[in-house]
Task: inverse folding
């Protein structure tokens, strides 16, 4: 009991221990908001949208719409929702895939028609999105969390959404053949990101890639198995997994 009470006090809720600290944790959980995905049906599936103080993972194969959802949420995160009390806020977009081309992740020109759809001033909306271009390796990605923490303090609660697209790209290429080191580094990154989301009350949306495994050596009568990159890390650090499928597949699958 002593250990449990000490842990409840050290997580940052309050300096107190025992049932009082648990009550504070319950109160903090009740203040969580949801951010719209831009899709009514997807919001229903998610119980309102992407939760604040939590990590949501979008995983799927290439060209299934993961980055498109992230672009839409760059705008929807800025729109206040009086019914729920969500105030709206700014967005931090971390792009680890590349630069500005048609096949890279973040494209500012994609945000303009989205602003028109939601009747939002595009100049003001783009000014509320902080963008970090792709680092060179996973160590840069980890160091950016320190810089992001400084920005969160400066913005004083104004940031409501952080997007990492994609979260596994640099860890996948930086730890080739070193799976245990990759798991430890990625797990630590997710833990720190989760702690920041809890302390500063924002939602985290991460994209992740998926590839097709062939455990049966190319047998034509056996279907291939879709495998998520670094699935084990997200099982312990992520709060919500959203599988995004191609138009000719089953579409969305949600797991908690």
Result:
């Amino acid at each position: 009991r002593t250990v449990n009470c000490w842990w409840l006090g050290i997580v940052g809720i309050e300096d107190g221990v025992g049932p009082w600290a648990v009550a504070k944790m319950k109160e903090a959980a009740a203040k969580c908001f949801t951010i719209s995905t831009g899709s009514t049906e997807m919001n229903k599936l998610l119980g309102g949208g992407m939760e604040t103080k939590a990590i949501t993972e979008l995983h799927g194969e290439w060209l299934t719409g993961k980055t498109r959802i992230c672009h839409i949420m760059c705008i929807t995160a800025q729109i206040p929702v009086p019914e729920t009390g969500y105030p709206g806020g700014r967005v931090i977009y971390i792009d680890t895939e590349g630069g500005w081309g048609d096949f890279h992740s973040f494209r500012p020109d994609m945000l303009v028609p989205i602003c028109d759809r939601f009747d939002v001033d595009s100049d003001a909306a783009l000014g509320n999105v902080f963008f970090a271009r792709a680092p060179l390796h996973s160590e840069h990605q980890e160091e950016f969390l320190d810089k992001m923490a400084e920005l969160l303090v400066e913005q004083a609660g104004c940031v409501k959404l952080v997007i990492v697209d994609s979260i596994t790209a640099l860890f996948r290429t930086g730890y080739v053949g070193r799976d245990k080191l990759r798991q430890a580094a990625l797990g630590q990154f997710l833990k720190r990101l989760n702690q920041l989301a809890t302390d500063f009350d924002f939602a985290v949306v991460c994209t992740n890639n998926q590839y097709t495994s062939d455990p049966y050596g190319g047998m034509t009568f056996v279907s291939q198995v879709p495998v998520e990159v670094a699935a084990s890390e997200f099982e312990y650090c992520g709060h919500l997994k959203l599988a995004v499928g191609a138009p000719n597949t089953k579409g969305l699958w949600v797991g908690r």
